[in-house]
Design goal:
Elements lengths: L8 E6 L3 E5 L6 E4 L9 H13 L4 E6 L10 H15 L8 E5 L5 E3 H6 L8 H10 L6 E7 L4 E7 L2 E2 L6 H7 L2 E2 L14 E4 L2 E4 L8 H7 L20 H11 L9 H29 L6 E5 L3 H12 L10 E4 H5 L1 H5 L1 H12 L2
Parallel strand pairs: 1-4, 4-5, 7-13, 13-14
Antiparallel strand pairs: 1-2, 2-3, 5-6, 7-8, 8-9, 8-10, 11-12
Helix pairs in contact: 1-2, 4-12, 6-7, 6-8, 8-9
Length: about 350
């Protein structure tokens, strides 16, 4: 329970496809917003989110990945636009609030400082989450594996502290700590080059016909959302339409692609994606010369993170008892796991770090 003298804290994570909000003592929320389609609408969307879920507050902290959207000529311009949009979105009732920006050096700085020096604020949300994950692994070697809608973050943890090799996106891509695969937005053609069809492997169309969301809906690891049309073809996010979208990857109509065929194809994509994450986990752990004792999993694709970690670190006869998998979904709730960087940042801001 919040002590009366404690400041009221809220946090935001502004991504390219989702806005995430949290406070230390309230529920977390993920709201779809395709920033690259309409960056001028960001102030409105942030204002609506703040008014509905976060206000009033004394401290508002923000982190982001949305600056990489191609609606911005440079990441610097993206950071500045996001911060200026936030500043314009704060309601008059919170006009005296302190607005802080999380950076890749592990600091919260005033918004004016971040606007003057924007690059350290770019794509820093994973480090906030790593701070939270590290608290669940206070001793020994561990890993964070966060599988989101678009990307997978892998962070080394040692004795309760994050030990990343890279800090910015390109360095993390090079080290294997950032894998550009997620459970919703990744095009199927970016995961596999062929799919099973009529007992053969058929090359797929290199088109944006279907995404991994279709795959994981068909496999029932993600729920349907009939009201959501942020899909490859703009039709509802349901299993019926997911099968049609996956059929198009093979240049066939849905009438030629029954449920059994769709499930075979979906399992093939899911296995390939799991393998991609598994290889990255091994690469990161081998570069650090350690075997993790614990793996903290989070994100919309926590189910995939768990499977990849299990396969990466418990094969060749090793017992699963040697590896503890800690689910932020189980610890904090599913909504908090999906919005984990915002949840972590709210905790950091309340602690005054």
């Amino acid at each position: 329970m919040k002590h009366p003298s404690q400041p009221r804290v809220a946090a935001l994570d502004v991504g390219g496809a989702n806005l995430k909000a949290a406070s230390p003592d309230g529920p977390a929320l993920t709201r779809p917003f395709e920033l690259w389609r309409d960056p001028g609408r960001l102030t409105y969307e942030l204002g609506r989110l703040i008014a509905e879920r976060l206000a009033p507050f004394d401290i508002l902290a923000i982190t982001m990945t949305g600056e990489l959207c191609d609606c911005y000529p440079t990441k610097q311009e993206g950071v500045v636009h996001i911060l200026e949009s936030l500043r314009s979105a704060i309601p008059p009732t919170c006009s005296q609030a302190i607005v802080l920006v999380w950076r890749t050096d592990g600091r919260l700085v005033p918004i004016e400082e971040a606007i003057q020096d924007p690059l350290p604020a770019a794509a820093a949300n994973w480090l906030a989450l790593a701070q939270l994950a590290a608290s669940y692994a206070p001793r020994g070697p561990a890993l964070l594996v966060d599988v989101g809608s678009t990307t997978t973050d892998i962070v080394l943890l040692q004795d309760g502290r994050p030990l990343p090799r890279g800090l910015d996106d390109s360095s993390r891509l090079l080290s294997g700590e950032l894998v550009y695969t997620g459970v919703e937005r990744t095009p199927v053609a970016a995961v596999v080059q062929a799919l099973p069809l009529r007992d053969l492997l058929c090359p797929v169309a290199a088109e944006h016909f279907a995404t991994t969301r279709d795959v994981h809906m068909l496999l029932r690891d993600l729920d349907e959302a009939p009201e959501d049309r942020s899909t490859a073809d703009g039709r509802p996010a349901t299993r019926e339409y997911a099968r049609a979208r996956l059929a198009r990857m093979l240049c066939v109509d849905v009438s030629q692609f029954d449920e059994a065929a769709a499930l075979r194809a979906a399992r093939y994509v899911a296995a390939a994606q799991e393998g991609q994450i598994e290889r990255a986990l091994r690469r990161v752990s081998e570069a650090a010369h350690f075997q993790p004792q614990r793996v903290v999993v989070s994100g919309a694709g926590e189910f995939l993170a768990r499977r990849a970690a299990f396969d990466a670190f418990t094969e060749n006869g090793a017992s699963s008892d040697c590896l503890e998998i800690i689910s932020l979904g189980e610890k904090l709730g599913r909504d908090a796991s999906t919005a984990a960087p915002a949840v972590a940042l709210a905790m950091i801001a309340r602690a005054g770090r």
